[in-house]
Design brief:
Helix content is 70%, strand content 0%. It contains 13 helices and no strands. Helix 2 runs parallel beside helix 12, helix 9 runs antiparallel to helix 10 and helix 10 runs parallel beside helix 12. The radius of gyration is 19 Å and the shape is globular. The two termini are 19 Å apart. 43% of the residues are buried. The mean pLDDT is 88.
C-alpha cells in the first residue's frame, strides 16, 4: 500500500475533468428539459465524492512522499497535469452553479487562485528550461488554455472585464501552442502511444472558448460562430485520424479525451439556446452518444487496471 501511495499519479485528476464535463452535459440537458434531474444529481455527487477521494490520496502522498510530488512537479510532462487540479475546481464550480451557488462560488475562487499560480509557474518553467520538440504534446494546453474556463462561471462572481482577461490569455496561448503542436506533429516523430488520445484536447479550446465568449459577450456573432465551427472541424478531423487510435494500450491519460467530447456537446446545446437553430439541438444529441460512450469505456478500462494493480506504479 505504501508503494501504491508513493506512485499515486497526478494524471488521475483528468478523471475528474471528464466526469465533471459529463455532469455539466447532463445538467444542461436537464435544464433544457431533455433529461430527468436524477441523472444530473447522481453524477454530480459521485464526481464530487471522487474529487475529494483523489485529492485526499494525493494530499496523503504529498505528506508521506513529498519528494515524489516534487519529482512530478519538476517533470517536463507531468507538470502540466497539476493544472488539472485547478481545472477540476473550475469545472465543479460550473456543475454546482445552479445547484448550490455558494459552493460554486467557493470552488471557483479556489480554482481561480490555484490556476493562476499554476499557469504562471508552468509558463516560467517552459521558459527557464530547454525543451526538445518531442516533449511537446496536447497536455501542454491544460495549464494555459484552461484559462478559457474561468469566464463560464466567473461572469456570475466578478465583472465581465475580469473574465475577459483570462479569456484573452487562454485564446492567445491556444493559437501559439496549436502552431507549435502542428509543427511537431507534421515534421517530427509521432506522439508516444500514451499521449495519442490527448489529441482530443484540440477540440476543447474552441469549444470552451465559444461557451466562454457567449457568457461574456452574450452575442451570437461572427467570432462566436468561428469558435464553434473550429470546434466542429477538430471533431471531424479526429474522426479521420481513427487509425491512430486503433490497438492502443490503455493509459490513464485516455481520460484527457473525454472532457473535450463533453465540451463540444455543451457548446452545441448553448448554440441552440442562443441561435434557436434546430440543427444544433440535433448535433447535441448526436454528440451525446460518443460522449457517454467515451466516459463509460475509459471508466471500464480504468477499473480493470485498478483491479490488476496497474495504476499506481512507477511510470519512469
Amino acid at each position: 500500500m505504501k508503494e501504491k501511495l508513493q506512485f499515486f499519479p497526478i494524471t488521475l485528476f483528468a478523471v475528474i475533468m471528464g466526469l465533471s464535463g459529463l455532469t455539466i452535459v447532463f445538467g444542461k440537458f436537464y435544464h433544457m428539459q431533455w433529461m430527468p434531474k436524477i441523472i444530473y444529481d447522481s453524477l454530480l455527487f459521485i464526481t464530487f465524492g471522487l474529487f475529494i477521494l483523489i485529492s485526499f490520496l494525493y494530499g496523503l502522498k504529498a505528506i508521506k512522499h513529498f519528494e515524489e510530488v516534487v519529482k512530478d512537479f519538476r517533470h517536463k510532462i507531468r507538470i502540466n497535469f497539476f493544472s488539472a487540479i485547478s481545472i477540476s475546481f473550475l469545472l465543479l464550480s460550473i456543475a454546482f452553479m445552479t445547484y448550490w451557488p455558494f459552493l460554486s462560488m467557493l470552488m471557483w475562487w479556489v480554482g481561480l487562485i490555484m490556476h493562476t499560480i499554476m499557469m504562471l509557474h508552468t509558463i516560467s518553467f517552459w521558459i527557464q528550461h530547454n525543451f526538445e520538440i518531442q516533449f511537446m504534446n496536447p497536455a501542454w494546453f491544460i495549464p494555459v488554455v484552461g484559462n478559457i474556463l474561468v469566464p463560464v462561471a466567473g461572469v456570475e462572481y466578478m465583472p465581465k472585464a475580469f473574465s475577459f482577461i483570462y479569456f484573452a490569455i487562454g485564446f492567445f496561448f491556444w493559437i501559439i501552442l496549436f502552431a507549435i503542436f502542428l509543427y511537431r506533429a507534421v515534421f517530427h516523430h509521432q506522439l508516444p502511444q500514451k499521449f495519442i488520445p490527448t489529441l482530443f484536447i484540440l477540440i476543447a479550446p474552441p469549444a470552451v472558448g465559444f461557451i466562454a465568449y457567449i457568457r461574456i459577450a452574450q452575442s451570437w456573432d461572427t467570432f462566436a460562430v468561428f469558435m464553434l465551427f473550429m470546434a466542429y472541424f477538430f471533431t471531424v478531423l479526429l474522426l479521420f485520424l481513427y487509425k491512430s487510435f486503433r490497438k492502443l494500450k490503455f493509459f490513464i491519460s485516455w481520460w484527457a479525451f473525454t472532457f473535450p467530447m463533453m465540451a463540444i456537446t455543451i457548446a452545441s446545446v448553448v448554440a441552440f439556446q442562443v441561435s434557436g437553430q434546430e440543427i444544433y439541438k440535433y448535433l447535441a444529441f448526436i454528440l451525446l452518444i460518443p460522449a457517454i460512450f467515451s466516459v463509460g469505456f475509459v471508466a471500464y478500462k480504468t477499473i480493470i487496471r485498478i483491479k490488476r494493480g496497474e495504476i499506481c506504479i512507477n511510470e519512469d
